[in-house]
């Protein structure tokens, strides 16, 4: 059986046809054009979905359903995108109703990080875990929490928005208005900001890592290590709160690899509150590019709540 997964993002929307084994049979992506109305974007996405189905000789009636992941804050009870900072044009948009105009199959809608966690459970790094947390460190920071064999979605689908846990209130003010959010101090955006301030020119977080690990700039190393320590602090809070067996970290920044995983792992071994907490496994995400669309399709293929 087949599902469509749609991962709506600030820069692009990924769309995939996914079978019941979690294999992506066909996929495409569209730039999220901020000059278009969201309803026009949905028209284009629907066209792309029909294109994928046509290519495989399928009809919309062959679909088990359509899963949609989108950045928070959203409201899955109301089926709306609420107020994601990078998608201002979509604020309040009734995304589920918009897709229902195009398709009669079941439509399920969840936060993108929650959906990506389900993808890791389904075909990724968390297949054996009944209790785990998936964390994405990229432009922002988010998480999906899987506990007792189920996703914790919260009342409105916003559970796991750990990017806005306060970690260091002295550090400055986040886009959300609170001071010292995890995302404000440890995301790729945060590392790039601090590194650019240090150098007096604009660089990316990837470039900051390369400089830090070249051993030529101790201050850049400090910036990077501070971000890793903040991620460690966030992980310890999550371990102490949810008692997971496993943490899975994905997102662009996690591609830096061992330096981050070793630093976070050391922090957990030192500060998690109980012996089992200190033993919490930490592994890289198995799915990178396709986590969002596989997760969106997983919402249709597997029971999660
Ligand atoms: P998005 O936030 O749009 O999902 P990504 O997950 O690719 O995008 O995250 C982008 C962030 O990851 C940027 O801050 C970028 O500098 C950083 N990044 C991308 N690739 C790497 C890499 N190989 N190593 C370290 N950081 C990376
Ligand atoms: Zn915040």
UniProtKB/TrEMBL annotation:
Alphabetical list of PROSITE patterns matching this protein: ROK (PS01125)
Transmembrane parts of this sequence: none
UniProt xrefs under InterPro entries: ATPase_NBD (IPR043129), ROK (IPR000600), ROK_cs (IPR049874)
Domain of life: Bacteria
Family under the similarity heading: Belongs to the ROK (NagC/XylR) family.
Protein's name according to its UniProt entry: ROK family protein
């Amino acid at each position: 059986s087949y599902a469509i997964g749609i991962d709506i993002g600030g820069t692009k929307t990924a769309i995939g046809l996914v079978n019941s084994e979690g294999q992506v049979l066909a996929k495409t992506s569209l730039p999220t054009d901020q000059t278009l109305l969201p309803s026009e974007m949905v028209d284009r996405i629907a066209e792309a979905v029909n294109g994928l189905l046509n290519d495989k000789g399928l009809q919309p009636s062959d679909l088990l359903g359509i899963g949609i992941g989108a950045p928070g804050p959203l409201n899955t009870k109301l089926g709306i995108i609420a107020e994601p900072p990078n998608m201002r044009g979509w604020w309040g948009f009734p995304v589920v109703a918009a897709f229902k105009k195009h398709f009669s199959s079941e439509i399920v809608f969840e936060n993108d990080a929650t959906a990506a966690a389900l993808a890791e459970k389904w075909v990724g790094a968390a297949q054996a875990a009944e209790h785990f947390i998936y964390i994405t460190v990229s432009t922002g920071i988010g998480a999906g929490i899987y506990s007792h064999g189920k996703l914790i979605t919260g009342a409105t689908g916003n559970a796991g928005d750990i990017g806005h846990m306060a970690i260091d209130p002295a550090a400055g003010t986040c886009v959300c208005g609170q001071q010292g959010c995890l995302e404000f101090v440890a995301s790729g955006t945060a590392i790039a900001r601090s590194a650019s301030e240090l150098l007096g020119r604009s660089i990316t977080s990837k470039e900051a890592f390369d400089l830090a690990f070249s051993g030529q700039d101790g201050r850049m190393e400090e910036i990077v290590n501070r971000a890793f320590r903040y991620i460690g602090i966030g992980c310890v809070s999550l371990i102490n709160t949810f008692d997971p067996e496993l943490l899975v970290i994905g997102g662009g920044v996690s591609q830096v690899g061992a330096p981050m995983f070793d630093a976070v792992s050391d922090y957990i071994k030192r500060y998690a509150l109980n012996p089992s907490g200190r033993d919490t496994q930490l592994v890289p995400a198995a799915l990178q590019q396709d986590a969002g669309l596989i997760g969106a399709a997983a919402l249709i293929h597997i029971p999660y709540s």
